[in-house]
Structures are given as C-alpha cells and as structure tokens.
Amino acid sequence: MKIFLDTANLEEIRQGVALGVVDGVTTNPTLVAKENAPFRQHILDICGIVKNGVVNAEVVSTDFAGIMREAHEVASWHPNIVVKIPMIPDGVRALSALSKEGIRVNITLVFSAPQALLVAKAGAYFVSPFLGRLDDIGENGLVLLRDILEIYRVYNYPTQVLAASLRHPMHILEAAKMGSHIGTMPYKVFEQLFHHPLTDKGLETFLKDWGKAREVLGDIMAPAAAAPKAAR
C-alpha cells in the first residue's frame, strides 16, 4: 500500500519524505489555507519536495465550467499533480471530460459504494472514500472500503482506491489487509506507525545493558588501535 501524507505543511512533508516511505501528498482547500501562502506556489513547493511522488490539489468551483477551468489550470502546474474534484454531479461530468483528455482526477468526499461505482465508470484515477468521517456518524468506514474494493475487483476497474480520513493505525492496518492501493493520513497518525511500547522498552533495555557492558568491553564505536610496526 502506498502512503500519502494528508497535509500541506512543508516541514511535515520534508520529514516524511526524508524517511523514504512517503509516496505522495493529499491536500485540500482547508489544509492549504492553514499555511497562509499563495495556492499555486505552495502546491509547487510541495511538488519540489515530493519530486517523484503524487501531489493532489483540489479545485474549489462546484459548477461544470468552473471545475473544468480550474482543473486545466491546476493540472498545468506540474506533471505530478492529480486534480481533486468533489463527488457532485457536475464533478463527475467534469471527470468524464477530463479523463478523456488524459488529466488524472481524484474524486473526493466519497461516502458510498454507488458513488465509487459511478466515478470508476467515468474514468477516475483515484477515488477517495472517507473512512473516519463515516465512523464519526456511527457507520463503519471500513465496510465502505471493503465494498468498493470488491466492486472494483469484480469489474476490473483501473481506478485506484485511496483510503482517506484515516484516524489511527488500525484504520491503516485494515486498509492494507483489504488491499487498498493507497492510504492517506495526517502526519501525527503517520508518526504513530513507527512506535510500539515494546520497541521503546526493548531499546531502553539494550542501551542500559550496553552502558554497563562498555565499562568492561570498551566503546565498540571507538577506532581500533593501530597495530605496532614490526621492528626492522
């Protein structure tokens, strides 16, 4: 499963990319607005950090003409950009037109399997079901993810499933087990993937034991003493 960071914060993206396991970034108008920077330049700055990964940038229009205009503009900024469009009728109409032009589109705010079926038929590159927001209203977001993946496998749709609104490591684990192509998550959730209390406890024990042993064995990191030269 590919890992995307759901953030527009440049420092978080730099740190994630430096670890070598981040494949892309998802942004939205809310995340970008928090950074208080010009939209186009900020998206380009993200592209410069991610380099070979995917950067999702969202339109804000909700009518067909506006979506098409913004999508063409955003897609022209960088070859790694995927245009995000909301799951509305004019959004699906725009998706159908844009996909025929070869412009990659991520349909966002998907909350049902029938919605996911429509966007796959229209040629979406990514579909973004929001798991956590369904959990918030008492539904099981993982059930939605399972249904979408099953439908796509039955009909062999090429649309990649991008599990979004992942709130904790168990969301990510279950999404990966189901075969979700991508999981996108806030940086704080990404950080949680690295940690386990037994890892921390084990490392603490190893270091404590080595602290005692080095008094006898010496520092393994110290350079070896040079061998004495043979007398001539």
Model description:
- Helix 1 (10-18) runs parallel beside helix 3 (39-50), helix 4 (64-75) crosses helix 5 (89-100) and helix 8 packs parallel to helix 9 (169-178).
- The protein is α/β, with parallel strands linked by helices.
- Helix content is 51%, strand content 16%.
- It contains eleven helices and eight strands.
- Helix 4 (64-75) links the parallel strand 3 (54-58) and strand 4.
- It is globular and about 80 Å long.
**CATH fold description:** TIM Barrel
Number of helices: 11
DSSP E strands, number: 8
Radius of gyration: 23 Å
Strand proportion, as a percent range, falls in: 15-25%
Mean pLDDT: 93
| Broad structural category | alpha/beta
Distance between the termini: 65 Å
Compact summary:
By secondary structure, this protein is of the alpha/beta class.
Which helices and strands appear, and what pairs or packs with what?
Elements: E1 2-6, H1 10-18, E2 24-26, H2 29-34, H3 39-50, E3 54-58, H4 64-75, E4 81-86, H5 89-100, E5 105-110, H6 113-122, E6 126-129, H7 131-136, H8 141-155, E7 160-163, H9 169-178, E8 182-185, H10 187-192, H11 197-217
Parallel strand pairs: 1-2, 1-8, 2-3, 3-4, 4-5, 5-6, 6-7, 7-8
Helix pairs in contact: 1-3, 4-5, 6-8, 8-9
Task: Provide tags for this entry.
single chain, 232 residues, alpha/beta, TIM Barrel, eight-stranded parallel beta barrel, globular
